[in-house]
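call fold(seq) -> tokens
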Amino acid sequence: MIDISDFDSGPVRASIALPGDGFAADDVAYAILPVHRVMHVALVTNGNPFLEKALQALPRVQLTVITPERYVDDRGYDALLFDRFAPRRRPLAPSVLFRPPRVDWLPPPKKELANIYATKWNATHALLENISLLDLSVDHATIASLNGRNAAAVVLASAPGGAPLIVANEDGTRWISFSFSLDESNFALQPRFPIFLSNALNWMVGERAFLSRGLGSIEIAVPEARVIAGDGKELPTQSIAGGSLFEANAPGLFTAVSAHERLRIAVNLTDRRISEVNKSTLAQDMAAARIATSAQPPVIDASFWLLFCALLLLLFEWWTWNRSMTV
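ret:
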């Protein structure tokens, strides 16, 4: 264990060398330390103890809880969370909104749905990094309509028929809108809900959490991205639906850059079936096979007996010929 709590934010490289190690690809690992500054966060709600406690438990979060009636503006806050409330004007600070009412700057509500669940979600997006919505169930939701005014909005999770459950917008000040409130779903009860809150705060204030991936083909939610390796070389990329694809054949730090964002990716050899090559039992298996073979009596092949019988017949024929006997 190595204490790196005093390290500044940024990339970290850890390496190890052992005598007799014949596999160098797993001798190095990369990571990125996040920024350690305190974030001032405001929760605007009429009362949500669970959400309040979840935010207070996050490191680097200084929380202020206010009611919608006392909300004036977003000055002095790094991020805002609105519980069943939305200001009439788009805040200057990034925001998370749980089932907001109709306002002009958000996608307009289209229809009401009950007893739905998530059928599709974008696991490559930084907001849903290390999060699965397989068990998400929603009792009641107000589904919004993504029109031309919200062309930059991205659907992170959807219900049957493509109804958007979670929408994120990166155009200008970032915001995340839920079509349901926490008390109308089991999202807040899932163990990865605190991870989502941490991802959301990092993403909104520009401290986007880095991605951790294994070797091979890597999908990132950065459309038309240029991927640059740690040595400055640019890697070939391929555009896919909702992002880009590139190939990483060795551990390292990579940076995906587009016109609107920048994403760091730490690539490491994470497959233990490959990295534990030195723990192979091949040598022990071969030694055991030799011991088992030496303990068994030798097995004579059938061809030996056929040759032996042929030799006997030749000897018998030679003996009868020398004695002028016919058979």
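The two ends are 90 Å apart (CA to CA).
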